[in-house]
Amino acid sequence: MKYYFLLLLFFSQLSLANCEQASESCVPVGEWQFSLSLGAGVYTNPLNGGDNIPLILIPKISYYGENVFFENNTLGYSFFETDAVIVSAITQLNHENAFFNRWHPQNIILGSTTSSSIADSGNMNSDNQEPLENQTPNMSPDKTEVSLDDIPKKRWAIDSGIQVNWFIDQFTDVQLQILHDINGVYNGFNGQLQFTQNFKFDSLINTTPSYSFGASVNSKNLVDYFYGFSDKNSDLPEQSYQGKLSINPYFRFTLVHKFSSKWSAQLHIKRIFLNKATTDSPLVNSNKVDTVFMGVTYDF
User: Fold this and answer.
1) DSSP conformational letter for 47
2) Fewest beta carbons within 10 Å, which of 12, 28, 118, 166?
3) Could you tell me which residues are beta bridge partners of residue 89?
4) How far is the C-alpha of 259 from the C-alpha of 264, rounded, in Å?
C-alpha cells in the first residue's frame, strides 16, 4: 500500500501523514523535492560576539520513501505507522551548534526539526575545559560577559532518537522528539513537544495560515557543554557558570499564498524564549531567539 506524507508549510517542522495523492500538501513516495526561496529576513544569535544570520536565499530539500525520509538536516526511518500515528527513528545535527558555527544547516536551510535527548555523565564541558564538578555555578545577576572568542571551539554534535507524529485531523498534529547525542560531544539529551494547527478559509483563496507552539528541553549536560564557562585564572564564582536543565517555549506563525503550482509567497515568524538556565550564562546576552523571513518560493 502506498503512503503519502503530509508536508507542513515552508519552514515548519517535519511531519508525516497518510493522504491522497491529489492533495496539494502531499508528494508521492520515492521522489526528491527541491524548492528555493528568495527574500529578506534574519535569524538572531543570542551569544556575545555571535552575528545575526541574514536570510536571503534559502533552499529546501526533501525525499520520502516507503519508510526512509530526508528533509534538510533530518534523516529518518518510519518503523510504525497507522492512520493517525507515525513513529520514526531520526538523526540530525544538533541545533545548538548553529549559534557557534556560521555554516550549520539551520543557518542556511531552516527547514528541519528542532530537538534534543537523555543521559547524564560527568564529562568535560569541552575538550579544553575542566570537568563539571570542578566548576562553580553562577547565580549572580551581575554576570561576567564572555564572548565567543573567549571559549574553545565547539564540536559538531550528532543527535539521534525517536520522533512521534500524531495527526489529530488533516489540519492538526502534535510532534514529540526525544534525542541523544551519539558521538559523545555533550553526553546529554534534548527533546521537543509541538502542536501545529493549519487553517483553510474559503475567503482566503490559495492562502494558508498556520501556527505552532511548543517547548524544547535541553539537558543539564547539553546546556553546560554549549553555555557553561570556567575561568581557570580566577577564583571568583561570578566568572564561572555551570549549565542546568533548560525548557525553552516558542511559537511560530506561517502564511503561504500560492500564485501557481510552482510559485508561492511566504511569511514566517518564530520566537524562542530562552530559559533562565541558559540566559544566566555569561555567553548569552538575550533571552530570545527570533526568526523572521518574507519572500517568494519556487518549487522545482
Assistant:
1) B
2) 28
3) 77, 162
4) 5
Q: Residue 224: in which H helix or E strand, if any?
A: helix 220-227
**pLDDT tens per residue across span 246-292:** 999 999 999 999 999 999 999 999 999 999 999 999 999 999 999 99
Task: State the pTM of this model.
Answer: 0.78
> Which candidate, 119, 122, 94, 278, places its Cα nearest to that of 189?
119
Distances 78 to 39, 67, 163 between C-alpha atoms, Å:
34, 5, 9
Number of helices followed by number of strands (H, E) in the chain: 3, 16
Cβ atoms of 171 and 12 within 8 Å: the answer is: no
Q: The C-alpha cell of 153 is what?
A: 571551539
Q: Three-state DSSP class for 91?
A: strand
